[in-house]
Amino acid sequence: MTEKSVYNYRKSAEIFERALKVIPSGIYGHQGPAEGCFVPVTAFPFFSERAKGAYFWDVDGNRFIDYMCAYGPNVLGYNDDEIDEAAAKQREKGDCITTPSRVMVDFAELLVDTVASADWAFFAKNGGDATTLAIMTARAHTHRKKIVFFKGYYHGVAPWTQKIDYPGVLPEDVANSLYVPWNDYEKLAETFAQNKGEIAAIISQPYWHGNFADNILPADGFWQKVRKLCVDSGTVLIIDDVRTGFRLDVAGSDHFFGFEADLICFCKALANGYNVSALCGKDFLKNTVSGLSYTGSYWLSAVPFAAGIACIEKMKRLDLPRLLDEKGKGLLHGLVETARRRGFDLHVSGMPALFYIRIADDDVNGSPSLMLHQRWIAEMVKRGVYVTNHHNHFLNYALNADDIKTTIQVADEAFAAL
Amino acid sequence: MTEKSVYNYRKSAEIFERALKVIPSGIYGHQGPAEGCFVPVTAFPFFSERAKGAYFWDVDGNRFIDYMCAYGPNVLGYNDDEIDEAAAKQREKGDCITTPSRVMVDFAELLVDTVASADWAFFAKNGGDATTLAIMTARAHTHRKKIVFFKGYYHGVAPWTQKIDYPGVLPEDVANSLYVPWNDYEKLAETFAQNKGEIAAIISQPYWHGNFADNILPADGFWQKVRKLCVDSGTVLIIDDVRTGFRLDVAGSDHFFGFEADLICFCKALANGYNVSALCGKDFLKNTVSGLSYTGSYWLSAVPFAAGIACIEKMKRLDLPRLLDEKGKGLLHGLVETARRRGFDLHVSGMPALFYIRIADDDVNGSPSLMLHQRWIAEMVKRGVYVTNHHNHFLNYALNADDIKTTIQVADEAFAAL
Lengths: 418, 418
Hints:
The structure is a homodimer.
Chain A: H1 10-22, E1 48-52, E2 55-58, E3 63-66, H2 81-93, H3 103-114, E4 120-124, H4 127-142, E5 146-150, E6 177-180, H5 185-194, E7 199-204, H6 222-233, E8 236-240, H7 253-256, E9 263-266, E10 277-281, H8 286-290, H9 302-318, H10 320-341, E11 346-349, E12 356-359, E13 363-364, E14 367-368, H11 371-381, E15 385-386, H12 401-417
Parallel strand pairs in A: 3-15, 5-6, 5-7, 7-8, 8-9
Antiparallel strand pairs in A: 1-2, 2-3, 4-10, 9-10, 11-12, 13-14
């Protein structure tokens, strides 16, 4: 591929000009220029036109092999026929109706059958609806206030989970938040000792995946010790599986790491992009959840339930986590080898299905500057491989061996372009 | 209709038994037995099978003329062909994709063109996402903490909007909440004087519609005085139009009552049931919103945007608020007359498109006991007219003159059965 074939984003830029007039910051969230702006924004397409399988096409007609998967929801491939058919069948009957549809019960039963730590399921729309319900449940059950977070966490955008210096957040919102370094059991135990009888919950992702940083798996025995500490202290253990859920283990990422959460939050991969999230949990918390005031306009919508049933059944049938792990390992092996041949040290972290990568040759005083890495990411995107410089990636079932081969070829060209 | 033709809910009850095992309280929200339980739950169907136009059918095959409209989202009729076609066309292209689709910008432009107080739009999933973003925006903009609510409000389920004695809610969550009686401008001005320079926002529905109580329209000049007070005090005026939005005025319910909000929250009728909400606002707050950390997994989903565009265009083309007002007036006239003929005093409040009704003959010491009313509601539902005893109702475009006639006939039978 020559420089001439590198993508341009003329129409994206035009639409973005319109967007800036009627939408705060034009685009919000990860895709907005405010985030990930270490990469020249000109390397990225702003608006998509369509998507299918492992690809999306932007408004300029450029095709991308997509390693972000809408930041998670695309787990089986965009517009998966089987999921879309199940959803369409339900849509013909009805979606958002005054009383819930029977598929809500079917979906809850399937989750209880599938997720090891689930005795029940409660459905909502955002991952943050599930994490907020989890926090409220823990506080209502324990009659305690304090919540332990692992530094570098992300559990949505509700005020209680934001940082004290973020705009719009009050000191009161985070007055009961305790922060502990990831994998540091000693510090955690110390924090529990210092706040004896006051900690309602620990909330954590199954492993650490902050932005702009190597991802970190749990240390050996870490979760088992945390689990025991929670039992001994009467503290509710909440796993935020919104990002990782179903990509590591269809029975839950807690199950993957050999323990059981009290409450576990799902979203993203739950229904292949249909809009639904879930909080699942243990029986001992069911009555507490029943007593909370918690609902939303679209939370009974039946179409996402039908899509979720089809999605989970297909993921189970495929043994999807194993397939994604294989795809990820093949891809990462190829990328690391290609980097090595071109004289670069590509550092890989996290699980293969949600890999984080970083060119490690741009460290300044032992810390990644990420400058060289960002340039490489930009060269990848401009050649049709959508990766990001700040976040873990996501694999989907539709990604095939040819896509991985193409990705490695593009990576080679992108290294050459540095 | 004889007693024999009164509905039974055998299958609903069976499915509810299953639901109780895997879902906290079986069904949550308004449809759950925990709420509205003043009515014998046996009068209501628990689960729907399908819906079309103004009707839904439950799992036992009973048909209902539906005056709850999924608590608002069904504004044009269930499975409206025009909206569903627009949504299906977008779904073929793609829904939840890594980068937003161009329809997001089209939708924002349409809202800005349609809603009088909107200079920009920000999309999310729940009404509560919009109200929470509004509160955070007001606090970030004013660098103040306090929020004024009108007693009997509902703005979602986030902890900041719940009550101090609700389970899972901390005193810290509501430490900056001030409560003023609805329509009481003197008390409001007094509250402002007592909290000079400290009130970030007033948040309010356009008129008062609490549960189990007659709805109350704004007093003459109330909103204009409130608007001026906010300007004079540097306080952000937030209108929660989640419930009322587009049923009173497609330009916003603030426009309907002759003032302009600084921030206005939409959900429900925004896309005829497709899952999307929006915060719209004035230019002077746009940069503040841009600086907040606020996003969600499905917030860029394109299908609800396409549905929203079609829904708003159709509502505008139809001049829907006028039609709903006419339907509501016809219905309410018939119900009140029928009640009178049967010797009952049916009290009507709120706007016709969102009417609240109550049999006023069961007052005890001057306050409604609602006991007779609840029995009447139960008789209505068992005869195929879905109304509730605790909440305002919602009209939709598909409701026709025959449905209204049938409703009035059923009402007559239900009065007779008391």
